[in-house]
Design a protein that fits this description.
Blueprint: H1 6-22, E1 53-56, H2 60-73, E2 77-81, H3 87-90, H4 92-101, E3 104-108, H5 121-139
Parallel strand pairs: 1-2, 2-3
Amino acid sequence: MQNIDRRTLLCGIAIGVLATASRSPAARGFATKLPPPAVLTRLPADGNQLALTIDDGSSVQVVGAFADFCRDSGTRLTFFVNGANSSWSVNAPALRPMVDSGQVQLGNHTWSHPDITRIAPGAVADQIRRNADFLRNTYGVDGTPYFRPPWGRHTPATDS
């Protein structure tokens, strides 16, 4: 088997993902009437731009691999960071130049990923503020204007 360099492999994977995403729902095996919930079948407007976002970063190796992927391929990503995960400190030297250049954006995903619908408003504010401080001190940005609540939960759960 012929060896392939990492940049070529990563670019090939990215092209494959984008090609698959651009095919019609029927070609991907989805019913054409109603796709499964939360499946992206087309971009929501005219054009061909797509935002790639990554959450949490609990693995040093995975965040490092994404940093390598961005550096090697020039791909732009937005990471939603939990500062409590050491992966963001360990990989800061690799990511910081890409943050500084605008290739990589960082958003606030709270300090430690709690279910914010189950903690007091002051604790929610502390989670966001603590993570913003981490981002500012580590990367020179505070994550604004982006905030993604853990698990997408943003309103209190109701008891039945």
